[in-house]
Specification:
The longest helix is centred in the C-terminal third of the chain and has 9 residues. The strands form four sheets. This protein has a three-stranded antiparallel β-sheet, with no helix packed on it. Strands 1-2 form a two-stranded antiparallel ribbon. It is elongated and about 45 Å long. By secondary structure, the chain is mainly beta. The protein is built from two helices and nine strands. This is Paraquat-inducible protein A.
Length: 102
Amino acid sequence: MEDLEVICPVCREPNFIPPEDLEELTPEDYFECESCGAYLQILSTDPLEVVVIEDGEEGLFVDCPECGLTFELEGREEAVCPECGHRFTPDWSELEEEEEDY
């Protein structure tokens, strides 16, 4: 049996899960994307579905309000979705609150 390819919703890079690990996966399990460091939680195993629970520490990520794509921003500027071209200004208030907690 071949490794199962799981595409990271953050960076769109493939991750591979060995067949022996597939048998032990539960909906509470998570793994780290090898490319961007995002933590992906298993939602279901049949079919395999994952959700981002932490975007990693490589940069700032936003979700496009138009198409839902998660993508990385270089700074806190206006965002332009690479998928649909939608322009928007991200709401950084949640991030600023987290920074105040530290």
